[in-house]
């Protein structure tokens, strides 16, 4: 493990820790951290109490019956009423809520009680990239943000599973449109290319087989939650990364989260956590791999 001698724990190293594990600090915050001591400072960053992750969401955060909302607009259109005005009101409301969600999260990052938790949430937000412009639903964007935060320090395989069922991600990568007759490959490709094993560690056939396995994933528009539709799933045998059988989405996730994924996440986390202009040595890389493998628990579960 990397250690810092007590003699080198000073204002400069305390400020550096605040820059890397949080979002910087004022001179007063730097001095307070220095007085706390390195061990206590690191412990406070890493040991997040359960209630800390339960900061109240924006007041508008609650699932809506989108199906009923759409039917209401259609009924107004069928009656010859000004349905466009109603649809415009919905779009404006969603836009206002997206702006408020950004404000809410920025406030959590700047003033919240767990800055490292927020920074890791931001890290995973960048890793599992999603666009509000395509999703067009603030509740789904908040729900994804909440999922990332609750799993920020946890099991990577569990996080991948939750993201595969995340409505915002499903919409962004068209997973909810995938059915056994016409599997959509967008999620399957991004899962391997960007989220897990990386380019060069899978084949185009793996993508096609993975897309078949993820068929049947849907969003319940009355509750805004994930639901599985068995009759839309391809239940025929599939071959993926050397495994053959009636594989489903969870099987694809388990096989994708591999030793290669550990190495890839170590590289990402090294960039995230190492000092600027720091070039890791071979021994540092080996120690980091062991440390991150343990902390992220990169194993199938």
Overview of this protein structure:
With 301 residues, the chain is mainly α. Among the domains are: 47 residues, no CATH class; 147 residues, no CATH class. The protein is 58% helix and 5% strand. It is built from 15 helices and four strands. The chain has a two-stranded antiparallel ribbon. The protein has a two-stranded antiparallel sheet with strand order 3-4. The C terminus is likely disordered.
Looking at this protein, list some descriptive labels.
mainly alpha, 15 helices, 301 residues, 58% helix, two-stranded antiparallel sheet
In short:
With 301 residues, the chain is mainly alpha-helical.
| Sequence stretches where pLDDT stays below 50 over 5 or more residues | 274-301
Q: What kind of sheet is the major sheet? A: 2 strands, antiparallel
* Strand order in the sheet with the most strands: 1-2
Q: What is the tally of helical segments?
A: 15
Question: How far is it from the N-terminal to the C-terminal residue, by CA?
Answer: 27 Å
SSE-based structural type: mainly alpha
Strand content: under 5%
Helices and strands, in order, run as HHHHHHHHHHHHEEEEHHH
On the 0-100 scale, what is the average pLDDT? 83
**Rg calculated over all Cα atoms:** 22 Å
User: Helical amount among residues, as a percent range?
Assistant: 55-70%
How many strands? 4
How does the overall form come out from the CA principal axes?
flat
């Amino acid at each position: 493990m990397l250690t810092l001698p007590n003699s080198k724990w000073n204002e400069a190293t305390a400020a550096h820790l605040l820059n890397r594990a949080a979002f910087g600090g004022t001179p007063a915050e730097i001095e307070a951290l220095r007085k706390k001591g390195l061990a206590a400072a690191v412990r406070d960053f890493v040991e997040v109490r359960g209630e800390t992750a339960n900061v109240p969401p924006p007041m508008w955060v609650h699932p809506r019956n989108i199906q009923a909302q759409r039917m209401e607009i259609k009924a107004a259109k069928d009656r010859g009423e000004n349905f466009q005005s109603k649809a415009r009101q919905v779009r404006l409301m969603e836009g206002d809520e997206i702006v408020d969600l950004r404000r809410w999260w920025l406030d959590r990052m700047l003033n919240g009680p767990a800055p490292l938790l927020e920074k890791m949430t931001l890290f995973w937000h960048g890793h599992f990239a999603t666009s509000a412009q395509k999703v067009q639903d603030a509740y789904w964007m908040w729900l994804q943000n909440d999922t990332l935060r609750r799993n920020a320090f946890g099991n990577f395989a569990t996080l991948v599973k939750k993201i595969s069922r995340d409505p915002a991600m499903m919409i962004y990568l068209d997973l909810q449109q995938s059915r056994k007759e016409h599997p959509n490959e967008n999620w399957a490709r991004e899962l391997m290319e960007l989220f897990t094993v990386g380019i060069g560690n899978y084949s185009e056939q793996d993508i096609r087989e993975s897309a078949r396995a993820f068929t049947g994933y849907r969003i319940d528009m009355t509750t805004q939650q994930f639901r599985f539709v068995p009759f839309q799933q391809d239940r025929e045998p599939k071959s993926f990364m050397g495994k053959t059988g009636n594989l489903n989405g969870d099987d694809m996730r388990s096989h994708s989260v591999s030793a290669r994924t550990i190495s890839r996440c170590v590289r990402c986390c090294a960039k995230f956590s190492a000092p600027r202009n720091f070039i890791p040595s071979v021994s540092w890389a080996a120690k980091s791999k062991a440390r991150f493998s343990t902390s992220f628990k990169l194993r199938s579960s």
